[in-house]
Design goal:
The complex is a heterodimer of chains A (122) and B (469). Chain A has 122 residues and is α/β, with parallel strands linked by helices. Helix content of chain A is 46%, strand content 20%. Chain B starts with a helix and ends in a 9-residue tail after the last strand. In chain B, 25% of the residues are buried. The chains are: A alpha/beta (122), B alpha+beta (469).
């Protein structure tokens, strides 16, 4: 069991629910949010090791989440998932020091693998 | 009958009439000439006869036989003259009168001969001589007089005929001209009416008066052109719709990604955690799959409905639900463009009488334009409200985009007018305009450069009696 904390932000409820079900099997503590505002507020209270965020969201979008997290909590890894897989978005995310970038539909195994790598690296 | 044929026919008739009159006048002239020549001859003869009577008088006064010889000479001269121009005289007065003249001359000549050969002049012979001379002179006078009168009559009747022909030709030409120009003007007015109705966007074939002349063919041609334009407009609406489909499909494809991802993630989790899931969990996950497939079905159906070519089929409709359905088609396009959408819908609106799909098409066009005008984000406000007149509903599509320059405003509804370069076909607004006008509605634009553009649609309310239309 590890006590790594993982946050999932996606306005599609099922994404958070399934990620939570799957990741909790690996022993992670998972919290899910449907939009970014409460998620960023939650980050102020607690340290999260990995933030998985959707790229395109109403209000604060994934890119802004990435920038905020990297600015305030540089240790925290951000993994971005998106329904709009395009090169510009990927490049923009990489420049923002994203840990990984997944187009939807997401392969949960790959996501888990990516999280594992994120946590093994300092 | 063709107008060309009518004109040719009337020209031929005029020609024939004029030739006839000319021929008649020529004949009259010839007759007048013949008569005049006779009158000349008759004058000559009259002079001879007068001289004969003078000689006759001398004979009676002086009993001089020389006078009789003179008369004899004159008679011979007269007979010779008549012999020379016999044909002319026959032509002028006819054979009967000439024979009469011959016989009078013969009788007179016989009496003269008797007087010359006879030894003395008796009372009886003197009376006969006088009587025959007088008859001859009177007959000659009367013929001359008659012929003069005839010449007069001929000239008078010629004059009358020419005057009559002049008026007849003048009036028939005026009548024919009036008739043809009326016919042409009437047809031109019909054509004008037709052209106006076509430019008003009404491609219905208009029944006009039956006419198998050139103007009838022109009207038939315009009618078939109008019909063809109607087909073309339908094709245009459809092709514009297909062009919009290109934009929509991209958005809709993205729209599909989320439910597909959800199903995929459920399936992966289901397979991975199968043993650990309770029966209730499994049922719950499967019902979520069902929900997501329903979501996909709706998106696809919406797109399919939009793409299908349809004849205009107006019905009672709730405009707010039309707006909502349209938004599901374009929501994704709006979202990816960093545009905030606000809806101000009046939910107490009466129903409208519209073809839902066509109005959806117009809204897609307007929203696409708005999104393209706000390339760096902005606010899109879609509103519905009661029209000012009370018997319509107004829909507003307002953006905070770059706006339309005032010099372009009068042309934005023209076909093929586009400010988007290769990005636009220039058909969106013209097709939208056609659709709204076919609904007896109105489409207006209000725009300020740098501030934004608002399109307002005005659509007629649904009335109970529309059902029976």
């Amino acid at each position: 069991m590890n006590s790594h904390k993982i946050m999932v932000i996606d306005d599609e409820k099922i994404v958070g629910d399934m990620a939570k079900l799957s990741l909790e099997q690996e022993g992670y503590q998972v919290e899910t949010f449907l939009n970014a505002e409460p998620a960023l507020a939650r980050l102020k209270e607690d340290k999260f090791h990995v933030v998985v965020t959707d790229y395109k969201m109403k209000g604060i979008d994934g890119m802004e989440v990435l920038r905020t997290v990297k600015k305030l909590y540089p240790e925290t890894k951000v993994i971005m998932i998106t329904a709009f897989a395009n090169l510009d978005a990927a490049i923009e995310a990489l420049r923002g020091d994203v840990h990984d970038f997944f187009p939807k539909p997401v392969k949960i195994k790959e996501l888990k693998e990516s999280i594992r790598r994120a946590l093994n690296r300092p | 009958m063709k107008i060309e044929k009518k004109l040719i026919l009337s020209n031929v008739m005029y020609g024939a009439f004029i030739i006839l009159i000319g021929f008649f006048a020529f004949q009259n002239m010839n007759l007048v000439l013949t008569k005049l020549r006779f009158v000349e001859i008759a004058d000559d003869l009259n002079a001879s006869f007068l001289e004969m009577r003078l000689s006759e008088k001398n004979y009676f006064l002086y009993k001089d036989k020389k006078a009789l010889a003179e008369i004899r000479g004159k008679i011979d001269y007269t007979v010779r003259t008549i012999g020379e121009v016999r044909d002319d005289i026959i032509r002028a007065i006819g054979e009967t009168d000439l024979k009469k003249l011959d016989s009078y001359l013969k009788a007179y000549s016989d009496v003269i001969e008797e007087a010359r050969t006879g030894s003395s002049m008796d009372q009886h012979l003197e009376l006969r001589l006088r009587a025959e001379g007088k008859k001859l002179k009177e007959f000659s006078d009367s013929i001359t007089h008659l012929e003069r009168r005839r010449v007069n009559d001929i000239i008078l009747s010629s004059k009358r005929i020419l005057m009559f022909s002049f008026w007849a030709i003048l009036f028939s030409a005026l009548f024919l001209g009036h008739f043809i120009s009326q016919k042409i003007l009437r047809s031109l007015r019909e054509i004008e009416k037709l052209a106006k109705s076509i430019s008003g966007g009404n491609f219905q074939k208009i029944e006009v008066f039956q006419s198998n002349d050139e103007l009838g063919s022109v009207i038939a041609a315009i009618n078939s052109m109008s019909e063809e334009l109607g087909h073309r407009e339908e094709e245009l609406i459809q092709s514009k719709k297909l062009a919009s489909m290109g934009i929509l499909t991209a958005g809709v494809a993205h729209e599909l990604t989320n439910p597909l991802n959800n199903i995929s993630m459920i399936a992966q989790t289901y397979a991975e955690l199968y043993d650990k899931l309770s029966g209730r969990d499994r049922v719950e996950l499967m019902s979520k799959v069902e929900e997501e497939t329903e979501r996909i079905r709706k998106i696809v159906k919406n797109l399919l409905d939009f793409s299908k070519p349809k004849d205009s089929n107006p019905n009672e409709a709730d405009i707010n639900s039309v707006i909502q359905k349209t938004l599901t088609l374009v929501q994704n396009m709006i979202d990816v463009s960093n545009i905030e959408t606000t809806l101000h819908l009046d939910h107490a609106l009466p129903h409208v009488y519209v073809d839902e799909h066509q109005i959806q098409q117009v809204l897609v066009n307007l929203i696409t334009n708005a999104v393209q005008a706000m390339s760096s984000g902005g606010r899109l406000v879609i509103s519905s409200r009661r029209g000012k007149s009370g018997n319509s509903v107004e829909i507003g599509v307002a953006d905070t985009g770059k706006g339309i320059p005032p010099e372009f405003l009068p042309h934005i509804f023209d076909p093929f007018f586009s400010t988007k370069g290769d990005a636009g076909t220039g058909l969106g607004l013209s097709v939208s305009y056609g659709i709204i006008k076919n609904h007896r509605g109105d489409i207006r634009v209000d725009s300020k450069v740098g501030v934004g553009t608002t399109f307002t649609l005005e659509l007629p309310l649904y009335k109970k009696e529309e059902k029976n239309r």
